[in-house]
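Researcher: Structure prediction, please.
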Amino acid sequence: MKLLTILLAPIAPLEMAFTALAGDYKDFAAEGYRWVKIDGPFMCPTKEDLREITGDPSGIDKLHMVEKLRAYYLIQGALVKVIQEDESTGMAQISAAGITINLWTYNRFLSSRPIKDAYAQIETPETSGLIPANTSAEMGAVPGATETPTPFLRTAARGFRNPE
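Model: Predicted structure follows.
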């Protein structure tokens, strides 16, 4: 009995940690955020393009759709925000970081449970780029940046040097 207790004791804290972790992300899912389950060119500006690319096109057709911006890549673990859902088709219109237009994908490619990205991290709205970082009142200003950059000059003997 003691051996069983000793062997199972480390499992309880792990289970509690995973439960706490999942609880932290439930709020994101309630707000419409989803994690991507797969990799591939499965985000499209129109529902028709999404049907076409997921139908059974050849690799060259997929390439042409990506080149013409009729398809964008989903990357496993990336966080997206669902804007609207079409229950009849099983599709969702989503917003993805770095893409200025809303795109369509299938709900089956999205998860309300956290999925780790390629860096073994779980994205949040703040880390994914879906929520803009704090900026100063001045448009385009970056916190901590100076108004005029200080140039660095390259010298043959010492590498780079500051002219001041």
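Model: Residues 12-21, 135-139, 141-155 have pLDDT under 50 and may be disordered.
Researcher: Thanks, that helps.
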